[in-house]
């Protein structure tokens, strides 16, 4: 009976530590897409890294 009480106490303490770490991490981080952009700051998300071409101009090579 004493072993189960010790295990239960250790399990509760472990869970409290895990919940504290998760809460702390969630309060310190923010979603990057939710940050407002500053004026004059270059925004990389506006441009696509893939060159946009007209589908009718694509040349088929054989």
Report on this structure:
The protein has 62 residues and is an all-alpha fold. The chain has a domain at 1-29. Helix content is 44%, strand content 0%. The chain is built from 1 helix and no strands. The longest helix has 27 residues, at 2-28. The chain is elongated. The model has no long low-confidence stretch (mean pLDDT 77). Keywords: Membrane, Transmembrane, Transmembrane helix. Residues 38-51 have a biased composition (Basic and acidic residues). Residues 32-62 are annotated as: Disordered. The chain crosses the membrane at residues 6-23.
Describe this protein with a few key phrases.
single chain; about 60 residues; mainly alpha; 1 helix; about 45% helix; about 0% strand
List the helices and strands and how they pair.
Blueprint: H1 2-28
Biased composition (Basic and acidic residues): 38-51
Transmembrane segments: 6-23
Keywords: Membrane, Transmembrane, Transmembrane helix
């Amino acid at each position: 009976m004493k072993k189960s009480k010790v295990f239960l106490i250790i399990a509760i303490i472990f869970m409290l530590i895990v919940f504290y770490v998760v809460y702390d991490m969630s309060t310190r981080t923010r979603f990057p897409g939710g940050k407002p952009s500053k004026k004059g700051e270059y925004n990389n998300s506006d441009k696509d890294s893939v060159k946009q071409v007209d589908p009718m101009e694509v040349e088929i090579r054989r």
